[in-house]
Amino acid sequence: MRRTRTIPKYAATLLCTAERATLLHTLNNVLVSALAEGDDRGSVDDFSSAFYQSGSPNHLGDSVPLPLQPFREKTVPRLPKDHHTMFVIDKKSGVVQHMSRFDNSDDAPEPPTITFSKKRQLSVRMDLVSTGFLFCSCEALQVIEFHVNNIYTFLTDSLLAKVEIMQNVFGVVELPVGSVIVEPITSAETYIAANISVCSRRLYPLTRESCFAEEEACYAVSSTSESVYLHSTVEALHKLTGPNVVIGPNTTVAASSSLSGVVCGANVSIGENCTIVSSVIMDGAVIGDDCVVRGSVVGPGVVIRSGVEVVHSVLGEECKVSAVGDGKHFLHNQHMFVKGTKDGEHSGSSSSNSSMRHSHSSDDTEEEEGDDSKNPRKDGTLMVGVECNGTSTRCKWENDFYPTCDLFTNDPIPQDDDDEESEEEEETYQQAIKRIVDTCFNKPDLLKEENYAAMHQQMSSVNVDMHKGRHDLSEAITTLLLQRALDEERSPSQTLELVKQYFTQWFLVYNYVHLDGSSNPNIDAMKAMLESVCFAIGDPTCVLHKFASSLFDHLLKGCNAAAYKERGFCIVSEEALVDFLADTLHKNEVRAAYEDDIGSDSSDEEDRNMLMVALSTQEYIEKIKKNLKS
Q1: C-alpha to C-alpha distance for 464 and 365, rounded to whole angstroms
Q2: Reduced to 3 states, what is the DSSP secondary structure of residue 346?
Q3: Beta 269-270 vs 286-287: how paired, if at all?
Q4: CA nearest to 74, candidates 18, 131, 26
Q5: Are 314 and 390 in contact (CB under 8 A)?
Q6: Is 54 exposed, middle or buried, given 0-12, 13-18 or 19+ CB atoms closer than 10 A?
Q7: 558 φ, ψ to 5°?
């Protein structure tokens, strides 16, 4: 009714859903809720029992959530449907701008091209199933036909083609399904699975939002597979088998290659007779002839020579993998490939156990021609991976692929030009601070109080030139210090002691950047900064994840020793007591979990005293906690 009043010549609203059962449950909930407001409650119960049988797993509950959840099931059928209808919907008004019917037949129509624009928000949908419910304006009632079998034919030939309502428009309202699955992404394998799930969610059920594309980007929808999207600049010399294929701009796919469940970036080249399944191919990658890629991520600029098979692997940026000798080069279950050298080329892998290192060569592989002294298999260099031609990934907490749970529920939003400029400015700022930090490590005397004024002036100048604040400076320095501590493999106790040593050396800087209006350290800001940097480390098993709180205690002790010593002898609120107990017990649990690695000697006397205080007052604090809840 609102659309009829606000949109000129609005004819009808088509009700769609990804599951028909959801429609029945939703209608029941809406009607029962409306009738429940009346006086005759008995008729409501009779109506509810007669409308549907309870117990369905897709039941939405006793009430309809508003606004409706923007989630859909991500199940993928093995084969496409016999036919499907594509809706191009204006997201602002809900009006259907274009509608096409695709049939899997020999005389399939040409794929329509949709132009996405930032100014006009469009949504292309193929996962919607028409429920047969059509809500029409009064003028359209005269052309309504009951028991309509083909809703597409009715809409095109009857409703919109009648003279009485010529040039009228109709809209679509979607009812979502009643469940959604959101999984955390914690490894490269789950990242790959996430991308495939994104395909399933976004393409079958098929959705393509305008926020996906750059300004005036054109994508063509394949008429033979309902989940294949090709950028208008793609050279695909065959009918992609699909399902779930996204091909970026300026990408070339040979005629004899087969793709299924694949996301390809821009400027990708795929050769003849290739089979690529359930994989992500990033920008600028080159895949030769007769290659097999399954369940893998191929990073930007990667070159895979002809005859290579890659299975369940992640190839880092600008790696080069080539067949060796007479046979194929099989790369199975490799967690991460990094840059290495092999006869002048980049090649490498880190096996699932990166501590396994090998220095022997493969007996069944012929050596390449050239100087043997340059071959890493002959010169005694410790190598890892298949055929010993890889290098280990030293920084397992640093990952070029940024996983996020938002991939499951939200379509990505492209960067604006301003975002790219801000990234460049941030990188420039990080490099400037890194030069200062490196200088201070080369000349430790600069961190002493008598020489600190010169370094302080230099950091202040960088902040003024780059329009940064004290918080930005603190975060940048902390990140660089933690990266320096994690650069080499050390035991957890050695890493913690090194970080504490760094904080002791740099306490003057932290004392400056976190001063409040009373010339005292802003403890809350300092703690939030340190925890955010520690928790941002990609590896959840990193020791700095667990010991962020104890690192903060050490940092506070260096910045303001007097405040640190007096922090346990002051009047505190009830909430602070509860937080003290929880924080102390958590530290004790973490230290117990890492006791084998860090040793018992690393726990200082103050930590033990705090634990004794917490345990002796635990019963009293628990009573306070109950009183607060009540």
Answers
A1: 59
A2: strand
A3: parallel
A4: 18
A5: no
A6: exposed
A7: -75, -35
> Is the CB of residue 329 less than 8 Å from the CB of residue 313?
no
Computed on alpha carbons and rounded to an integer, the radius of gyration of the chain in Å comes to 31
Question: In 10 A of CB 265, how many CB atoms?
Answer: 19
Coil vs helix vs strand at 489: coil
Architecture of the domain defined by 188-336: 3 Solenoid (2.160)
| pLDDT recorded at residue 467 | 81
Write the single-letter amino acid at 196. I
For residue 274, give the nearest of 291, 260, 287, 288 by alpha carbon. Answer: 291
- Best CA proximity match to 264, nearest among 204, 240, 224: 240
Count of other CB atoms within 10 angstroms of residue 360: 9
- Given a cut of 60, whether residue 12 has pLDDT beyond it is yes
Which part of the chain has CATH 2.160.10.10?
A: 188-336
Give the per-residue pLDDT at 334: 45
Q: Which of 93, 130, 133 is nearest to 10 (CA)?
A: 93
Cα–Cα distance, 195 to 192 (Å, whole number): 5
List, by residue range, all CATH 1.25.40 domains of the chain.
429-594+602-629
The CATH code that applies to domain 429-594+602-629 is 1.25.40
ω into 112 cis (within 30 of 0): no
**How far apart (Å, rounded) are the C-alpha atoms in residues 5 and 93?**
12
Query: Tokens in use for 509?
Result: 């800087």
Length of the chain: 630
pLDDT category of residue 479 using cuts at 50, 70 and 90:
confident
